[in-house]
Amino acid sequence: MQTSSDRHEYPAHWEADVVLRDGGTARIRPITVDDAERLVSFYEQVSDESKYYRFFAPYPRLSAKDVHRFTHHDFVDRVGLAATVGGEFIATVRYDRIGADGMPASAPADEAEVAFLVQDAHQGRGVASALLEHIAAVARERDIRRFAAEVLPANTKMIKVFTDAGYTQQRHFEDGVVRLEFDLEPTDRSLAVQRAREQRAEARSVRRLLVPGSVAVVGTGRTAGGVGRSVLDNIRDAGFTGSLYAVNKAFPDDLKELDGIPAHRSVRDIDGHVDLAVVAVPAEQVPEVVTECGEHGVQGLVVVSAGYAESGPEGRERQRELVRHARTYGMRIIGPNAFGVINTSAEVRLNASLAPEMPRPGRIGLFAQSGAIGIALLSRLHRRGGGVTGVTGVSTFVSSGNRADVSGNDVIQYWYDDPDTDVVLMYLESIGNPRKFTRLARRTAAAKPLVVVQGAGSAPQGHAVRATRLPHATVSALLRQAGVIRVDTITELVDAGLLLARQPLPKGPRVAILGNSESLGLLTYDACLSEGLRPQQPLDLTTGATAGDFHAALLRALGDDSCDAVVVTAIPAIGEASVADAELAEALRSAAEQVPGKPVLVVHVELGGLAEALSAAAGTAPQAEAKASGARRLRPSQQLPPPSSAPTPPGAPRPPDTEPRLIPAYPAAERAVRALGEAVKYAQWRREAAEPGKVPEYEDIDEKGAAAQIDGMLTRGQGLTLGTEETCELLGRYGIAVRRAVPSFTADDAARAAGTLGYPVALKATAPHLRHRADLGGVRLDLADEEQLRRAYAELTELFGKPEELRPVVQGMAPRGVDTVIRAVIDPAAGAVVSFGLAGAASQLLGDMAHRLVPVTDRDATSLIRSIRTAPLLFGWRGSTPVDTPALEELLLRVSRLVDDHPEVVAVTLEPVVVAPRGLSVLGASVRLAPPPARDDLGPRTLPVY
Fold first, then answer.
1. What are the Cα distances from residue 886, in Å, to 820, 838, 858?
2. Within the chain, which residues score under 50 in pLDDT?
3. What is the Cα–Cα distance from 838 to 819, expressed in whole angstroms?
4. Residue 212 near residue 275, CB atoms below 8 Å
5. What is the pLDDT of residue 7?
6. Which one of 359, 768, 797, 852 is least enclosed by Cβ atoms within 10 Å?
7. What is the helix (H) or strand (E) element at residue 257, kind and residue range?
8. Nearest C-alpha neighbor of 941 from the set 323, 71, 83
9. In whole angstroms, what is the distance from residue 399 CA to residue 439 CA?
10. Which pTM was predicted?
11. Are 216 and 267 in contact (CB under 8 A)?
């Protein structure tokens, strides 16, 4: 570490783990005086060509002076960072602050020269790009605003690193050298580049875990039973297409195979590369296994071993050390205490989990933090015929256990562009980084459905992540804003997933209902109304309906332009046989294929074979054996049309756009309709997301003046609640006018204030227990003259106490309207959030508030005021006059701009905001200032710190 007195303290917060382009990891940290030998060793492994590109001349070795210069930094004007794997340097970057003359300088000079050197074996892994992000963040922290770099024209790789970064830059060519200069302020393009690289790197890091070419199970027992042996058997029985190895240091030296699987005492003894290691040894033996795997070049670990953070403080520290240890070797971890991973792809067939059977292959990606929930989800999908449709099973499954490293965010990055996954289902006990999760969810949901059950738990034990202070309901609302289909139970999770996996999205909320039971049709009708859908009157085909009747009715419904989805209800007849179920399933599937584009769902009551029949492949018809068996059929139609396309030969791949319409079946109308309701809302979100709203510009906003005022006020303290005059002044700079309220500690004060403001006036008690509580009698309105005012003043003091306790104010009357409340808060994890609701105890009691992330767009503002359950009161409920909602939307946008432009504004409350038929009045306001929480989403890419 730096020890000289002229050195600044070692900046430990610059240390970071990063995921590289190929999915491996590296550690970035400051270079210190203790790194001299590592630097020399690193330089010796760099090719002569790379050295020439770095120093513009042959430079075979570093001199003692060079080593001293490159390892002694003050961490302000001279900074060096290294990327390390296994504790050794693989790349370095440094900057030196320079003045206008290009010579070494100190602050206030704000430019620096930057130079990189990457070991040849690690070029092409994105190391330089990651180092550039981190050295730029360090430079901004040290008030450096601009980098300059001189590069030889032949060094095209390094020129590309700079030009692809997305910063605003200039390029010059002088004396045979390309000089690049670029500002370090993040731009929209630089953030887009950074996030695209993040997605590719994190997706590949997960792919290394889910698509391995070889797997070693460490901790395999010689006899059946036990965790390690169970995982080994499950991998073998699933037909894993790669190489499989059994590893246990207790194996005798002469044991070469275990049930036909190569057996070894150590990973080091395996002759060949190992991509993935499943670790199933006691926790105290895991560090030795991690070292062996790292030294052998294993790319990732699935740790099923328990005894970590779930077991207490000692286990928590053991877990943190496990992550640090694995990342030292560039490995990522699923677990510890994980249930395992599954990939059903025919090219992989990996069941590295404790699930005894491989799930049916399909198009659903499944993530569960809890192993027990993961088991339940796999079991439900299996029981429902692989997702009610033969191919709607699982593409990949991840159970993350303690989620020490790989999290739901990482797996979303993988599924985002995974061609084998159409729908993502996630059970999340917590969301450690809501800001990043909502960003990734919004992007993913624009491409494929993302269905989430969110538990109410805290972050997994051992995590060093910021905790959100937002209520659970608020986080759920923000997830919906990001396009997440938020459900409450794993049953609803599966129901929604099965519908979305193989049915098209509905174009609207209009639902046709048909079936052979009037009662079941009416139940479905009522369920649609409860979900906010617009059902048509059910069509009763009667219990005598044949499969052909169902087919014809479904064809008519699908061809009707006045409906967007169809729910088919079906009940069995006495003595019904499964062959009739198959015929009905084929009739429905055939009709759906003939008129595609609208979702079809089936509600069946105790119809044993229908769900299985619907899950059969296209072209499944009653078999000759069934006909010959004497099984009784229910009025079969003699003129069923043939399937619209020939069946696909078994095992042959089928392009997604030609796969058969596989219809989900539900045992209850409420479950089917609830899944359909979620699909309708998601489809609406997709349509709106395709044309995103805009953040309006307002010419009367004084952003610079507000910034100067905020800076001046923050000099008085770290956390500050503004006084009335300061609040009004700051809000006024953003075009938000607050009606003046005059404190009145005597009746004479009140009379003078009213004389100044003009009658009629309102008299209010502003004590905390009475503020905004008109129902308690602390407010008197429409006081027309001094006599009424003095009488009201006397009543208040008689009822509630002395004026010093009441804190009465006099305020001019606002036009009558609907009382509302607007709040904005900056949450350390989720970011800035704007909330809206009606004022009053009833709304607070019901929690009837809507929320949006900042910046709020014009579309967001429009939907925000319509999202609360009491919104009809704003739009003329029961004959009342509609209020000025455009003025309300503008106020929301101005509040959003204020907290977005000035993150020091950590809380704003406008209450009440009286919205009249024309215009609105802000009657109360409060603002709190504080240093803003760090924005980790604007910094360089990093993995969570432990």
1. 14, 16, 10
2. 1-6, 386-391, 576-579, 607, 617-658
3. 6
4. yes
5. 53
6. 768
7. strand 257-258
8. 83
9. 22
10. 0.83
11. yes
| Number of other CB atoms surrounding residue 571 within 10 Å | 16
CA dihedral of residues 787, 788, 794, 795 (deg, nearest 10) = 160
Determine how many CB atoms are found less than 10 A away from the CB of residue 769: 11
Cβ distance 308 to 315 under 8 Å?
yes
Structure-token pair, residue 709: 């005022």
**Strand 510-515 relative to strand 539-540, pairing:** parallel
Residue type, 863: S
State the DSSP code for 74.
-
From start to end of 422-533, where are the E strands? 423-428, 450-454, 485-487, 510-515
Separation of alpha carbons 360 and 352, rounded Å: 15
Distance between CA 778 and CA 767 in Å, rounded? 9
Of 576, 389, 362, 369, nearest in space to 463 by CA: 369
Q: What dihedral do alpha carbons 475, 478, 483, 487 form, nearest 10°? A: 30
Q: Which pLDDT score, from 0 to 100, does residue 942 have?
A: 87
SS3 724: helix
Q: What pairs with residue 818 in β-bridges?
A: 915
Smallest CA-to-CA distance from 95 within 138, 64, 61, 58 is with: 138
531 phi/psi in degrees, rounded to 5:
-90, 5
pLDDT value at residue 798 = 84
Predicted confidence at residue 772, as pLDDT, reads 64
pLDDT value at position 599? 96
Q: What is the reported pLDDT for 883?
A: 95
Report the pLDDT value the prediction gives residue 391, as an integer from 0 to 100. Answer: 47
Neighbours of 785 (CB within 10 A): 12
Angle CA(164)–CA(168)–CA(171) in degrees, nearest 5?
Answer: 80
Distance of alpha carbon 653 from alpha carbon 864, whole angstroms: 45
Position 638 scores a pLDDT of 32
Question: Number of H helices and number of E strands within the chain?
Answer: 28, 39
State which amino acid sits at residue 350: L
**CB 810 within 8 Å of CB 744:** yes
Q: pLDDT value at position 807?
A: 87
- Reduce the DSSP state of residue 905 to 3 states and report it: strand
CB-based contacts of 348: which residues, under 8 Å, 6+ apart?
210, 211, 212, 240, 241, 242
